[in-house]
Amino acid sequence: MKALGFTGWKGPIKFRMPTAENLVPIRLDIQFEGQRYKDAFTWNPSDPDNEVVVFAKRTVKDLKLPPAFVTQIAQSIQSQLSDFRSYEGQDMYTGEKIIPIKLDLRVNHTLIKDQFLWDLNNFESDPEEFARTLCKDLGVVDPEVGPAVAFAIREQLYEIAIQSVASARESRLSKKGRRGSDHGSASKASGLSMDLMKLFSFKSSVVRKRKELDIYEPVVDLLTNEEVDALEAREERHAR
To answer: pTM (2 decimals)?
Structure first.
């Protein structure tokens, strides 16, 4: 993994994904007319809205889904894009945050679990590059695992970015009553964040190990066909 430069944002910035590419994680799980379509991918919020319908039509054609799925897919994507865009233009406070990212994924026959720290301030970070490096280091050969890992990271970063909007709002309200106060109230973990920041030496975006923290070594298991069938049957029951 290439070293990524540390960026020390001291105050609020406008909402966006805390990564080099401002991409929205989109998750679809649609059941209609006795069929089910599941997928997860990223979308550029700057793309024209008509691209959503084009994508939906192409997906339905390629997967031979019922025509009614076009509307279902397009509406779900548009709804998630609208949620993302509703935060655009609002302040988000990142402070000096080092946050934990957890992975617990099954992709086809591969089960992967890991936990590491991520520099929320590094707006040049690249989840896709990190995922490719992780899979290479762990000897993962399934080409679908890397994109799933990157998506899981982006999904968690998105949730934290939304929380950072609320932190910025709380900070503004606090300042109204305390002129000249700093952003310390926006993050209860600021002391821990400052301590963890030393681990990065201003050169990297990810840290894996530290004895004082509950961070685990990555685990990769290859499941048998019987184990996969059992897990999929359980997931199907939960979805009903």
So the answer is: 0.80
